[in-house]
Amino acid sequence: MLQEYFSAFIQLVAGFGFAGLIIILSVIFGRRAKLRNPSHIPYECGNVPEGDGAPAFFSIKYYMVAILFLVFDLEVIFLYPWALGFKDIVVNNGAAFASMTIFIAVLMVAYLYAWAKGVIVWHRNPAPRR
After folding, report:
1. Could you tell me which residues come within 8 angstroms of residue 42 by beta carbon, excluding any fewer than 6 positions away?
2. Listed residue (44, 55, 59, 65) closest to 121, CA to CA
3. How large is the C-alpha radius of gyration of the chain?
4. What is the pLDDT of residues 92-106, one digit of tens each?
5. Which residues contact 107 (CB under 8 A, 6 or more apart)?
6. How many CA atoms does the CB half-sphere of 24 hold within 13 Å?
7. CA dist., res. 88 & res. 4, Å (int)
8. What CA–CA distance (Å, rounded) separates 59 from 48?
9. What band does 17 get if pLDDT is binned at 50, 70 and 90?
10. How is the chain split into domains, by residue range?
11. Which residue has the higher pLDDT, 70 or 17?
């Protein structure tokens, strides 16, 4: 019975071993700041902070692209197994084909809506300079 879990055990050992190796190598080869007093500056992922600490504002385009990426990336997760068994699904179960067709149609409507709103168009004509 333990032979069934041997490959999982090997993966765990390899994962923890790689993580430990990376930590050890970063301690050995990592640079240390000589003139840094940790009690006087805030902790910021090990980096010396720069600027006044005000949050940087990003354009909404970045967030829209991220959301669209998630939506259409998740679409692939559902479409891939369906595409692998396409012949069996269509022959044996017409309802599964219909439901996936509706799923694709809803995603196509979402894609066309995003396209019509100009979310997918990254560059627009800039305003004329004076």
Report:
1. 49, 53
2. 65
3. 26
4. 888 888 888 898 899
5. 71, 72, 75
6. 6
7. 31
8. 26
9. very high
10. 60-117
11. 17
End-to-end CA distance of the chain: 77
Q: What is the pLDDT of residue 4?
A: 82
Looking at 1-130, list the stretches that DSSP marks H as alpha helix, in order from N- to C-terminal side: 6-29, 60-84, 86-92, 94-117
Q: Sign of dihedral through CA atoms 57, 62, 64, 67?
A: negative
What average pLDDT does range 48-74 have in this prediction?
Answer: 77
**Which pLDDT value is given to residue 63?**
83
pTM of the model: 0.47
* Three-state secondary-structure class, residue 33: coil
Phi then psi for residue 74, to 5 deg, are: -70, -30
84, 76 contact by CB (below 8 A): no
Instruction: List Cβ neighbours of 115 (8 Å cut-off, separation of 6 or more).
Output: 121
User: What was the pLDDT predicted at 77?
Assistant: 86
- The Cα–Cα gap between 103 and 89 comes to 15
Average pLDDT, the chain: 79
